[in-house]
Amino acid sequence: MKIELENITKSFGEKHVLRGVSLLLEAGNTAIMGESGSGKTTLLRIISGLEKADGGIVKADGTVAFVFAEPRLFENITVLQNVTCVGDGSADPAKAEKILSSLGLKEALMLRPSELSTGMAQRVALARAIYSDRDIFLLDEPLRGLDEETKNEVIKYLKSSLKGKLAVTVTHDRADAEALCDKIVCLKDGVLN
Q: For 153, which DSSP code?
């Protein structure tokens, strides 16, 4: 599995967000850091195919799971059902329960998303991505809304769960990037430094 980006450009009106981004990513977790509005999320969306680049070549070799900065959960079903709704159609509740328990959500299995805190909802979104067992994980601010103790537990679990996979993590927090990722690149003025 790998991601190849070659000379990616993207503008929104007059604003040039990405100006020739090139990057080769293989197994491991790479953090993309940068100020708000620097194009980090846009780059993730281009990698996933949710956004089209204006120019350049994107190759993502492998199946992709995307965790958005704001948890996108189905409001009318339980936490457990939110996790098991992805995949090939054959739900494995025991596997989902194990993942949720590892993320400190054992007591939340039968709750609805409206009953969760922001941090809990974010962990459900992470659980769903891990349950999907994809090759590539695109994580947009995955530790948002977590207190320090929970964040440390989630980092430990993610490092273990994503071992041997390819992950790209967007964050503005250098400490989070250093704790979770193997490599850090910075996006500034539309180019990677």
A: H
Q: Give the rounded percent of residues in the chain with a pLDDT score beyond 90.
A: 82
* Tokens standing for residue 72: 């996108």
- Rounded CA-CA distance 159/65 in Å is 16
CA distance 139 to 40: 11
The CATH class, in words, for 26-52+62-192 is alpha beta
pLDDT in tens, 85-117: 986 667 899 999 999 999 999 999 999 999 999
What is the spatial distance between Cα 31 and Cα 87, in angstroms, rounded to a whole number?
26
2 Cβ contact partners less than 8 Å away, ≥ 6 residues apart: 24, 25, 26, 59, 60, 61, 62, 166
| Chain-centroid distance, C-alpha 137 | 6
| CB-CB contact of 1 with 135 (8 Å) | yes
Strands 64-67 and 136-140: parallel
